[in-house]
Design a protein that fits this description.
The protein is α+β, with helices and mostly antiparallel strands and 244 residues long. It folds into two domains: 170 residues, Transcription factor LuxR-like, autoinducer-binding domain (Beta-Lactamase), CATH 3.30.450; 55 residues, Winged helix-like DNA-binding domain superfamily/Winged helix DNA-binding domain (Arc Repressor Mutant, subunit A), CATH 1.10.10.10. It contains nine helices and six strands, in the order βαββααβαββααααα. The chain has a six-stranded mixed sheet, sandwiched between helices. A hairpin with a 3-residue loop joins strand 2 and strand 3. The longest helix has 33 residues. It is elongated and about 65 Å long.
Amino acid sequence: MTGNIQKTSRQNSHRLLYVGGSHEDFFSGLVLGARGLGFEHCGYLIGVPVHGKSWQFVMMNNFSRFWQERYRRHGFCTIDPTIQYAKEAVLPLTWSSDLFDTEPLSELSKVVKAVGFNHGWTQPLRDSSGKFGVFTLARSQGAITAEELKDKLPMMQWLAHVAHSILFRVLLAKHQNESVVQLTEREIEFMRLAAEGKTSGDMSILMGVTERTANFHIGNAMDKLGATNKAHAVALAMRLGLLY
């Protein structure tokens, strides 16, 4: 399934990045188009092959923070059946939450149902170099019937191809420019505290370290992110989806 990207993302075999910024207005238009077609949720994802069979994924969507956090934390992009389908297929996939009701997907299934992805439609999109895009529409109520598809499919596919034509190069640029940012788990812990407004003194107490150690981890994160100060580092880390 495809801001506001693996046995898990922490293992770096499949990395997940989230993209916002100047193209959010365009994406907001996609969301409005999706809602006009009867879908609450809209997402677009690209996958770029790296290091043999590993993939890096970059996405934009209007899915909930709950979904974002758990999808990243558990590395669901490696088992998501809509993504696995899109890697091989060209035809769209119409699905319901039942697609996720198998034992290997039990945790993903819980999240899918909790956020109301009960019915959806996924269109694979592909380019000649092996990179692919995935456009997904989802909603909580109402199965997608054959009659509805007959009526709406041209517009759904048009929306998917518009998303692909504009966002593919944007997300690919993000992959090329920002995928090298890899914070350690310790750096992420301190950056999360910084995002909550904690001072170095607060962090030292909460984490059981000296203020010098807290500043060391924050400084490393700032260097990796190319940030000018702690607030800037927090903003960049949040935009990249590194803090949840």
